[in-house]
Amino acid sequence: MAKYFDVHPENPQRRTISSVADIIRSGALVAYPTDSCYALGCRLGNREGIDRIRSIRNLDDRHHFTLVCQTFAQLGQFVHVDNDVFRTIKAATPGSYTFILPATKEVPRQLLHPKKKTVGVRIPDHVVAQALLAELGEPLVSSTLLLPDEEEPLTQGWEIKERLDHVVDAVLDSGDCGTEPTTVIDFSGGELEIVRRGAGDTSRFE
């Protein structure tokens, strides 16, 4: 059974956040809220956790996992960013955007797109997600909590607990999340490409 953690959306309890970070460090797969919708997340290098995300969402090896980072400095450890792209991304973060970029050697091969050697990165504008990332001190390997054959992600913590009780280790609930996933911008091909229009405003990229 998944552990259930109820946290305040604006002033998350430090002890609760610390407990969730501890179980992530121990190898847990968690469902947690972001500024777009709920996500599945595990520690970087947790091969079993990544395989479990693939299984829950029925993903193939071409799926771009996302490294959800606390800060821009942290993000820069895992992707190659030139000056022009740096300025563009910096102006849009934190926010509901995922950026696809060439990965550094810090990123496990299991997370990379098999042909492009790219990975998704983002910095969420969400108090609870930021508190968890700060406590963890490293990115979360994440994917939107969108189940196979369903059109919208799950948005309620209690429903996630009810439906995924046997396949995740913990649910971090801070109230209702949105149903719109992040806007995805691909910078890996030399020219900017809007891959998915979502919660983030695309006008700044057009």
Automatic annotation (TrEMBL):
Pfam families: Sua5_yciO_yrdC
Naturally occurring in which organism (per UniProt): Streptomyces scopuliridis RB72
Classification via NCBIfam families: L-threonylcarbamoyladenylate synthase (TIGR00057)
Positions of the YrdC-like domain: 14-200
GO molecular function ontology, one term from the record: double-stranded RNA binding
Protein name: Translation factor Sua5
InterPro entries in UniProt: DHBP_synth_RibB-like_a/b_dom (IPR017945), Sua5-like_dom (IPR006070), SUA5_domain (IPR052532)
